[in-house]
């Protein structure tokens, strides 16, 4: 019944009432509310004053939503770190019934779908005089805390009547609303940043040193570097990318901190990078002086064109257009191996519909929308209101930088003035995708360990260059910028300990077995071992080490294809994950009671470190096992190729030549590439192999037969 001339988004939330409005002029309350005519409401969002602080730094990143009749008709841009923002944005809204007030809601933007409510107000349209500009001051309120002062919003509005012929613009403008929503989530470029080093930083600890780390922020995107202990001249050598949403560039805020255990981290200094001053497609070396502190930071910054990313309706399908499909296949053909090594492949995701979703609202319905993530690339659909069987029918395309990435599709319920409610999630490794097949994926819980209510129908296509994908496997894995912070959990600590114990016990049992051969517990076995020992030692050559590993991989492969799969489903890990979920639920309910561990912050931090170390050690052992178990065939084949190469090299080339080449490379690497990022190819390879926990999280659950497409229920539009 309404729409906008200049909409901003289609991501809507239910409204909140606030009945304070200051207006001037004669009221049009006498106009019949059933009047079938149209009205045009022109609004200028001026500014906000004394808004509520929602971030740790005492600031907020406010933006404003306008709604009529529960439908979002305008969303402002985000003003970062400002409690007195100036927007000066205009919106043109078509209104059919003046009885529907205009709701204004202010939020603090947070990247992880945790936007904080900052207050709401409403504008009674019946109190506006027709054809007369009116300045409006709205006091923001929180319905749950009506006595709290949350600041004011200043508007300029004018209401004018329109003829009935404007009714036919509804559908067209609704489509435009979705178009603008999609564009607001697309980026126009990539900012590649390499944090090289710090020089002469300020000493913050009593020993005359610091434990520095650096935080970066560009809009809603954040990155935190690793901590370098006890140094004033840290060498980070870290690389990461930000998305560039604005044509003119943007400002990167950089802050340096000293890590302190058991108390708040010390501030070392800050600096900024103005991207609008940097030329594109060129690497810039920047030496930045830290303000409010001492020392310098050295960065490499490169601005490049955007990768392939888009949102469209099902009618716009790149892979169904023969010409576009051929162009995509040509881009990732084997002949273009060395053309843009970062561009590994193309991913197209059709988000079709969901069925039988969880009820999240008191009305017995939900307002679901879907978030599609690939590493740090994130796009989302529109919201379907009051529906447990929504149809989105959207196509998302992504540029693949690592074929070992995992596609995450999460369904949320849009909630009133709060962060969105979680409804379900699936995680799909790209290498497990069967192209062009529409599948019903059972939605899982947050931990991806068990089912939740509902299924989601997806159709996914992956096209990639296998050689590029193999080469990218040997470089560091891209880290997600927004991840949940680790918290201390008794169940998680126990699980990681059991996983590590199982890995260690493999080595212990092997040692017992060898020792039993020496003790002649079984004479035939000891005799066979003694003969094998003499034969191997007498004929041993270095190339036999990779050759044995190669034979082990080959043996497991033939066991699998012959139907004698020795891989067992890890029910122990599954049980532990389910127990952990129950423990998390219990912790959430009893969070107010467990004050003791929160008081001993330093001990908690140590426990979290131990918990993470146990996880890393256990994951390392499990990844080695899963490489030889052919858990990811692509990686196992890649290991076979590498082992064949090493076997041939060690067989034909003397060891001293190999060691000589290795030493020359290591000694001259810093001279040849002073800003190169150090990495270990073997560890980078293993980081792509899933651990047992990830294997459980990524495995698909069998859908309920009642969710079959042929038994699909008709959508209830509420």
TrEMBL record:
Source organism: Lynx canadensis (Canada lynx)
GO MF term list: calcium ion binding
GO BP, sorted A to Z: regulation of neurotransmitter secretion
Protein name stated in the entry: Multiple C2 and transmembrane domain-containing protein 1
Main localization category: membrane
Lineage: Eukaryota, Metazoa, Chordata, Craniata, Vertebrata
Membrane topology label: Multi-pass membrane protein
Sequence ranges assigned to domain C2 in this UniProt record: 20-138, 171-288, 322-443
Pfam family, one: C2
InterPro entries per UniProt: C2_dom (IPR000008), C2_domain_sf (IPR035892), MCTP_C (IPR013583)
GO cellular-component term (any): endoplasmic reticulum membrane
UniProt keywords, alphabetically: Calcium, Cytoplasmic vesicle, Endoplasmic reticulum, Endosome, Membrane, Metal-binding, Repeat, Synapse, Transmembrane, Transmembrane helix
CDD domains attached to this UniProt entry: C2A_MCTP_PRT (cd04042), C2B_MCTP_PRT (cd08376), C2C_MCTP_PRT (cd08377)
Classification via PANTHER family: C2 DOMAIN-CONTAINING PROTEIN, DYSFERLIN-RELATED
Ranges annotated as spanning the membrane: 527-560, 634-662
Localization in the cell: Cytoplasmic vesicle, Secretory vesicle, Synaptic vesicle membrane; Endoplasmic reticulum membrane; Recycling endosome
Domain of life the protein comes from: Eukaryota
Family: Belongs to the MCTP family.
């Amino acid at each position: 019944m309404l729409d906008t001339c200049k909409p901003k988004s289609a991501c809507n939330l239910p409204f909140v009432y606030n009945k304070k409005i200051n207006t001037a002029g004669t009221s049009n309350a006498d106009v019949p509310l059933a009047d079938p005519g149209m009205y045009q409401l022109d609004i200028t969002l001026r500014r906000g004053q004394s808004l509520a602080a929602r971030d740790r730094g005492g600031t907020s990143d406010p933006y404003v939503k306008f709604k009529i009749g529960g439908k979002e008709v305008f969303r402002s841009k985000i003003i970062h770190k400002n409690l007195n923002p100036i927007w000066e944005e205009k919106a043109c809204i078509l209104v059919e019934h003046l009885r529907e007030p205009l709701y204004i809601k202010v939020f603090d933007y947070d990247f992880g779908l945790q936007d904080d409510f900052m207050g709401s107000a409403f504008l009674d349209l019946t109190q506006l005089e027709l054809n007369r500009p009116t300045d409006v001051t709205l006091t923001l309120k929180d319905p749950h805390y009506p006595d709290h002062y949350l600041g004011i919003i200043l508007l300029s509005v004018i209401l004018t009547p329109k003829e009935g012929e404007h009714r036919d613009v509804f559908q067209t403008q609704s489509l435009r609303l979705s178009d603008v929503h999609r564009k607001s989530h697309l980026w126009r470029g990539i900012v590649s940043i390499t944090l090289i080093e710090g020089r002469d930083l300020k000493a913050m600890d009593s020993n005359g040193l610091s434990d520095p780390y650096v935080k970066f922020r560009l809009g809603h995107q954040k990155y935190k570097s690793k901590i370098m202990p006890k140094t004033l001249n840290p060498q980070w050598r870290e690389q990461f990318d930000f998305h560039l949403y604005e044509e003119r560039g943007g400002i990167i805020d950089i802050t340096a901190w000293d890590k302190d255990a058991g108390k708040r981290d010390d501030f070392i200094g800050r600096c900024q990078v103005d991207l609008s001053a940097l030329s594109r497609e060129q690497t810039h070396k920047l030496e930045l002086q830290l303000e409010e502190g001492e020392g310098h930071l050295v960065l490499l910054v490169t601005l490049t064109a955007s990768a392939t990313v888009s949102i469209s309706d099902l009618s716009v399908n790149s892979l169904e257009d023969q010409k576009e499909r051929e162009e995509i296949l040509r881009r990732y053909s084997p002949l273009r191996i060395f053309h843009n090594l970062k561009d590994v492949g193309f991913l197209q995701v059709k988000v079709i519909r969901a069925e039988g979703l969880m009820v999240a609202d008191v009305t017995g319905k939900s307002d679901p929308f879907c978030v599609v993530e690939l590493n740090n690339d994130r796009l989302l659909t529109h919201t379907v209101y009051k529906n447990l069987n929504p149809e989105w029918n959207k196509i998302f395309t992504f540029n693949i930088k690592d074929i070992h990435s995992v596609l995450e599709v999460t369904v949320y319920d849009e909630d009133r003035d709060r962060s969105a409610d979680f409804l379900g999630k699936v995680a799909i490794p790209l290498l497990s995708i069967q192209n062009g097949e529409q599948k019903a994926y059972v939605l899982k819980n947050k931990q991806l360990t068990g089912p939740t209510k509902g299924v989601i129908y997806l159709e996914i296509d992956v096209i990639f260059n296998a050689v590029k994908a193999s080469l990218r496997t040997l470089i560091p894995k891209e880290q997600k910028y927004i991840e949940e912070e680790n918290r201390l959990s008794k169940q998680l600590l126990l699980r990681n300990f059991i996983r590590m114990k199982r890995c260690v016990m493999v080595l212990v049992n092997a040692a017992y077995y060898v020792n039993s051969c020496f003790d002649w517990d079984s004479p035939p076995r000891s005799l066979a071992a003694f003969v094998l020992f003499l034969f191997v030692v007498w004929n041993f050559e270095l190339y036999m080490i990779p050759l044995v590993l190669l034979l082990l991989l080959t043996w497991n492969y033939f066991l699998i294809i012959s139907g004698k799969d020795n891989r067992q489903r890890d029910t122990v890990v599954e049980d532990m994950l389910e127990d952990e979920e129950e423990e998390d639920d219990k912790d959430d309910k009893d969070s107010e009671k467990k004050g003791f561990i929160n008081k001993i912050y330093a001990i908690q931090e140590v426990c979290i470190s131990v918990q993470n170390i146990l996880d890393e050690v256990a994951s390392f052992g499990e990844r080695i096992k899963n490489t030889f178990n052919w858990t990811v065939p692509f990686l196992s084949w890649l290991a076979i190729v590498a082992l064949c190469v090493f076997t041939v090299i060690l067989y034909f080339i003397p060891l001293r030549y190999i060691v000589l080449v290795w030493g020359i490379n290591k000694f001259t690497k810093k001279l040849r590439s002073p800003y190169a990022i150090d990495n270990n190819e073997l560890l980078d390879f293993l980081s792509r192999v899933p651990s047992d926990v990830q294997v459980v999280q990524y495995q698909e659950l069998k859908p309920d037969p009642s969710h079959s497409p042929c038994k699909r229920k008709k959508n209830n539009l509420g």
